[in-house]
Structure formats: C-alpha cells, structure tokens
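Lab notebook, design round three. We kept the backbone fixed and only want residue identities now. Task for the bench partner: fill in a sequence for the structure below.
Input structure tokens:
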C-alpha cells in the first residue's frame, strides 16, 4: 500500500510539474511563516516544562491546557514523551491523544475569524460549537472506553532528563517532520483543486479536507450557500484535515494507535457541522 501511494505521488509530480511546484511553494510559505513561529516555541517550552516534576494530580489539566491552547500536534508530542518515559500506559496515551489535540483558539481567531468572517459571523458563535463538540466527545469516549485513570496517584511525573541542546534538536526535528507533511499535502490539494474545481463541487469539497489552511481558503470562495460554507469551515477546523492526522502520526511511537483519534475527529467534525449549520 505504501509503495503504491509513493509511486502514485511520484506520477502526480511528473504529470503536474507546475502545479506541484506551486503547491510546494505555498506549503513551505505556510510552514515557515505560520507553523514554525507558532509551534516551535511551544515545542521547546513544553518539552522543557516536562523536565520538572509534575504532581500526578496536575498531569491531565496540564495536558488539556497544552492540547487546547497550543494546537496540534503539540499535545501528541507531550503524550508520546510521557508514554515513552513510562509515566502513562498505552491505553491512557491512546485516549489522551484524542482529548489533548485540538485546533488552537489563536489560529481560529487570528486566521479563520479575522480573514474570513470579520463581522459577518460572531467569533464566539463559531468557536463554541468546535470546543463544545470536543468536550462532549471527550466525555463520551472516556466512559465508552473504560474510564482510564486521569489523575495518576503516587510519585510526581517527569520525562527523561535532557539538555537544552537535546530539547532544541528534538523540537526542530518535530517541526521539520510537520513541514514535510505540509509540503506533500499542499501539493495534493493544489492538484485536486486543479482537477475538480470546475468539474465536481463534491470532489472539491472533499479535497478541502486534505489540509486545513488551504481548505479553508478554497471553501470560502466555493459557490455554495453561506450556511453550508460556514458549517463546512467549522467542521474542517474541528476535524483538522488529513494532514493533521499525518502530523500526529509522525510524532507518535509505533505502539500507539490512531484509531481512536481518527474516530474522535470524525465525530467532533460531524457534530460541529450540525451545530453550526442549525445555528446559522
């Protein structure tokens, strides 16, 4: 499967050279000017904070804070580091990845609301369904999948000791992985739009869910009703796009599964779509 996908991507690069270059250029611009200054400082800060000894009762609130305010895949990076340090179990890690990986409010306010809604739609009305869906499905998953321990008892928790240089290098390696995925998905979304934009609106809408930033841009100019457009943008912000799933996978150990995370994102995206569509 992996070989077939690699060969298909290679063929697309050969068949659509100009579109591929433009997609790569836009992906690198987005990565360099948006994600690097936004995520890299958080990676360094959160990895440094894990060098402290965190009381078990404060671990889950800390993960929630990182997951909701720092944006993905910061939460996944921290959860994986805790798992590799044997501070949390595999079951806890798989569900914490769901609970602690969300689109940051800074991105939603500064990029989505400011650029595409302005005064047309209240920022509060847009953000509320997104985070309400995340909280709702977190509770459902918690009770549905065995109620794992959220507040470990006993000793304080700390990741393996690292020098500042090691923290820097790991943070840079993580942001480079994310950049590679953004480049690939930016190329795919540019090719998809060139093929489907004028021929099939459903295929175009499906392509928007490849990568969140480019997807929002194209959704905003799509010839559909304001009600449907706003609901789809909200669903994409809640889901995060296939690129975000690939980013999360890239920072996780092989033992950890993405099954719950993908299911969680599909549920929250669908719920957000319904809530916004009914509210507009």
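Proposed sequence:
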């Amino acid at each position: 499967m992996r070989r077939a996908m690699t060969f298909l991507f290679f063929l697309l690069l050969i068949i659509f050279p100009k579109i591929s270059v433009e997609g790569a250029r836009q992906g690198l611009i987005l990565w360099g000017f948006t994600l690097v200054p936004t995520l890299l400082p958080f990676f360094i800060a959160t990895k440094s904070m894990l060098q402290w000894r965190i009381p078990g009762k404060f671990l889950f609130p800390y993960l929630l804070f990182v997951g909701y305010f720092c944006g993905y895949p910061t939460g996944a990076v921290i959860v994986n580091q805790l798992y590799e340090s044997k501070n949390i179990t595999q079951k806890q890690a798989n569900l914490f990845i769901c609970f602690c990986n969300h689109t940051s409010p800074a991105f939603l306010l500064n990029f989505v609301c400011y650029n595409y809604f302005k005064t047309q739609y209240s920022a509060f009305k847009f953000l509320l369904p997104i985070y309400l869906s995340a909280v709702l499905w977190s509770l459902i998953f918690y009770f549905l999948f065995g109620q794992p321990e959220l507040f470990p008892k006993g000793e304080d928790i700390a990741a393996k000791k690292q020098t500042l240089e090691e923290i820097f290098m790991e943070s840079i390696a993580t942001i480079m992985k994310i950049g590679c995925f953004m480049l690939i998905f930016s190329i795919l979304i540019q090719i998809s739009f060139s093929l489907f934009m004028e021929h099939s609106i459903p295929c175009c809408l499906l392509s928007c869910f490849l990568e969140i930033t480019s997807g929002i841009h194209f959704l905003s100019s799509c010839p559909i009703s304001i009600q449907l457009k706003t609901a789809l943008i909200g669903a994409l912000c809640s889901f995060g796009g296939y690129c975000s799933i690939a980013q999360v996978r890239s920072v996780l150990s092989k033992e950890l599964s993405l099954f719950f995370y993908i299911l969680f994102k599909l549920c929250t995206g669908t719920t957000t779509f319904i809530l916004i569509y009914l509210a507009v």
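Keep this in mind before ordering anything: DSSP finds 13 helices and no strands in the chain.
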